[in-house]
């Protein structure tokens, strides 16, 4: 893995049906994105990687600055794309399953922070392409999102991802040969910033008027479905897990 050298946006917690629908959309979005990346690789390979040479990011070259939007779709060889595909799908899905619109905004932010970091700071005459900036951005986002959103399950997912994939950070530090550590670092920063920018903005509790004219905040229990609702048990279980 590694960058190679050469509707609903934080408006509050979702209900279970909406979350399941968003998770389904997240799966297909990531499947489609990977398919697009692999189609680009086939065309790139057939043209002897001319696309990577023409649409990569070269530090200080103003003509390649717009290529920060195309470089994540391109790779230098089959090993490069194969090492990126698994982490890209896993971290991308985990970043997207709570809201695809928010995920698209996050992805744009990460692409920009990763690409601009490479464009400004990479050594000259190095052509950088690859999806690893996105991978590091999604990784950073998934690790800290639960803390900002105050979701128990997301926090646990973040802890597991951090413990399981902490070794990724070794290729986001200076001196890593053969990869764009600057692209990794820029993507990671974008993901961490995105976790704060796209956090849930929980609305202020609505107030119920009592008979005597007083008001009291509406509790989560008051928002639960009626007991005869067929999804009442699902709502309760997801609420107990911190998913609502």
From TrEMBL:
> Which positions fall inside the Peptidase S54 rhomboid domain?
67-199
The portions of this protein that span the membrane are 26-46, 103-122, 128-148, 155-173, 179-198
Which coarse location class describes where this protein primarily resides? membrane
EC numbers on record: 3.4.21.105
Q: How does it sit in the membrane?
A: Multi-pass membrane protein
Q: Where in the cell is it found?
A: Membrane
What is one Gene Ontology biological process annotated in the Swiss-Prot or TrEMBL record?
Answer: proteolysis
- Region: Disordered; residue ranges are 205-232
- Among its keywords, does the record have Thylakoid? no
UniProt keyword annotation of Membrane present: yes
Alphabetically ordered keywords of this record: Hydrolase, Membrane, Protease, Transmembrane, Transmembrane helix
**Under which main EC class is this enzyme filed?**
hydrolase
Q: Looking at the Swiss-Prot or TrEMBL record, what is one Pfam family this protein matches?
A: Rhomboid
Question: What name is this protein filed under?
Answer: Rhomboid family intramembrane serine protease
This protein's species is Streptomyces mirabilis
């Amino acid at each position: 893995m590694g960058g190679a050298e050469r509707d609903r946006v934080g408006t509050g917690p979702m209900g279970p049906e909406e979350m399941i629908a968003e998770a389904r959309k997240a799966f297909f979005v990531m499947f489609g994105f990977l398919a697009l990346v692999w189609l680009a690789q086939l065309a790139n390979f057939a043209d002897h990687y001319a696309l990577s040479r023409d649409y990569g990011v070269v530090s200080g070259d103003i003509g390649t600055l717009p290529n920060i939007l195309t470089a994540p779709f391109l790779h230098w060889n089959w090993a490069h794309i194969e090492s990126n595909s698994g982490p890209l799908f896993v971290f991308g899905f985990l970043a997207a399953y709570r809201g695809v619109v928010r995920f698209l905004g996050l992805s744009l932010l990460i692409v920009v922070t990763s690409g601009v970091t490479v464009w400004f700071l990479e050594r000259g005459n190095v052509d950088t392409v690859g999806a690893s900036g996105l991978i590091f951005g999604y990784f950073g986002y998934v690790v800290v999102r639960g803390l900002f959103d105050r979701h128990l399950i997301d926090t646990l997912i973040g802890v597991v991802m951090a413990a399981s994939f902490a070794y990724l950070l070794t290729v986001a530090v200076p001196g890593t040969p053969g990869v764009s550590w600057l692209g990794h670092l820029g993507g990671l920063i974008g993901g961490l910033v995105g976790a704060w920018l796209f956090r849930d903005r929980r609305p202020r509790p609505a107030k119920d008027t009592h008979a005597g004219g007083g008001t009291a905040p509406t509790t989560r229990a008051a928002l639960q479905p009626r007991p005869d609702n067929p999804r009442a048990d699902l709502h309760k279980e997801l609420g107990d897990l911190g998913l609502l």
